[in-house]
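Q&A FORM
Asked by: J.P.
Topic: structure of ABC transporter permease

PROVIDED:
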Amino acid sequence: MNKALRNPITYIAFILPTLALYALFFVYPVIVSFIYGLYQWDGITDKVFIGLDNFIRLWTDKVFLKSLLNNFYFLVFSLVVNIPLVFLISIVISKVSRMRDFYKSAVFVPVVISTATVAILFGVLYNYDSGLINQFIRLIFPESWAREWLSDPKLAILSILIANAWQNVGFFIVLCLAAILNIPKEIVEAAKIDGVNAWNETWTITLPLVRPILFVMLLLSVSGTMKVLDIVQIMTNGGPFQSTEVMSTYMLKVGFRSMELGYGSAIGVAMFLIILVLTFILNRVTKHEEVQY
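REPLIED BY: S.T.
REPLY: Here is the structure written out as tokens.
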């Protein structure tokens, strides 16, 4: 057994299946998408080579630029609202001594609900006539304060951002809470003996020690917000007037409704490159040394 483990062929035999699956389901689709992006093709007739015209077209396509901007709205909302809220809720739950497991389970419930269910649920809540939100507004404020949450171009994107955040923050809370509870009690107790109050403990001890998990959350946020699709597709399908269009929904419309598979592939490649660049920048900006307890 030991002799087999010292043989490099043993490790190669275990790694090759994984590499093969990775190449088949990730590397190959990316390469094929880039190749298709060089053609004008409807998926039926012969492909016509047009070079980089599809990629150049992206930066003059107002709908694509609008969808890219909406993806950045998702990203900014996640970084500015979701992650600070996740950290705050995690701190509060970590300080609770009774029913902590219940709170952990409660915040995680939205994560296990399908996105389609969440989208339908919030669609009902946002309904102008019978939605709970407008009903509550009518109880306190004049009728004119009620809003068409998903039909108003100015409010639709914010409404989807809130629904998306409600579904996803539970996963991040569990990650962050696990990191906080993993901090050795000796460090916290020593800080209390030195007279450190709760505020200083949070910012000088807890935050630095959970920084690696926060970095993981940032990476997941970048990837997730740039690929967001299902909740937008179900709630608004990119409307009204492309006010909630994101790159994924636009790619589907172009590729499978307008049958411009070449241009749709170019949008997919652009999404991949944008995520790659943002991840690289984030990795450089947040570069840090490993935390030692």
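FOLLOW-UP: DSSP finds 14 helices and two strands in the chain.
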